[in-house]
Amino acid sequence: MHVAVYINNSLLLSHQPMNTSAADQNIFEMCKDLPEVLLFYLGLQFVNMFLGVPANLMVLWLIHKNKSDSSTSDIFIMHLAVLDTFFCLIPPLELINLVYLTTSSTWYVLRFFYGIKDSSPLFLSCICLDRYMAVLHPLTFNQLKERRYRAICAASVWVATLTYAVAKCVGTILNFHKAFTAMILAAFAFMVFCNISILWALSQSRLGHDEMHPVKKRAFKMVLIILAIIVFNYFPPVALFPFQAYFSQEVYMCYIHYIAFGFMDISSSIQPLLYLSKEKPKCPACCCKCCITKETDNIVTPEPSTVYTVNSKDFSQINIKMIV
User: Fold this and answer.
1) What percent of the chain has pLDDT over 90?
2) Which residues of 254-289 are buried (b: 16+ CB within 10 A; e: fewer)?
């Protein structure tokens, strides 16, 4: 069997053959009986390169441009965009390594970038936690609203990310793949919990009012979209990797492995596009007056009894706007 060289399970999730020189074959030749999935994976990686790189760079530019009016989550979004930008640059090397090369030297570079991408759910978890606190615990959120707390948290995540990436790059730690499985399971469960909690809280109508407040309605829709994207990108590895032992080595390495990572890696393009979709297009100079008139006409005046304060049990309208 061609994939017999993938004996050590700790290297399966590292994309590296244990001894490629033994068979003198690259991965594409080893998986020649199941080439569709590998082509699907490479296609998603090049989508990341051509779509994800400009999208993430635009996100970084917008955050820098609007830093005076940025939300508290933008610092995590900025670091996530930096991480995804570097990851989106590897498809050419990955294509050459998977299809043409049989040497293992390039795997050290690729494994480092794979380790960087593996840790992206940590930044996503920080974003979900920030929004969870803003909606469900507005008092605590406003007490910890200073950017220095988030800067410390982002620095801690980078330390963990680089440590994990270097350890994965070395590729000699026994059963190291279990660290990724534990991390992705914990991060997925945490993100789903935070977003479902926010959705449940936003869906609660105020006493005496049947209609959801417009700000809450927009926030509810945005969080629902975020939850759907998280499930789409991260549910395949969560559902498949813990059951690795139930698949044959050939099916797992040439089929399951690349499907799960393909869905996870495409998040490098989907996440910045979601952020960009929230940006309101600016009116041209000739239409500025018309746009201002329309925006003024569309302003909804809240009812006198609708009050949002950080001292009430309801949510601060200012905090909820960060999700919209």
Assistant:
1) 34
2) bbbbbebbbbbbbbbbbbbebbeeeeeeeeeeeeee
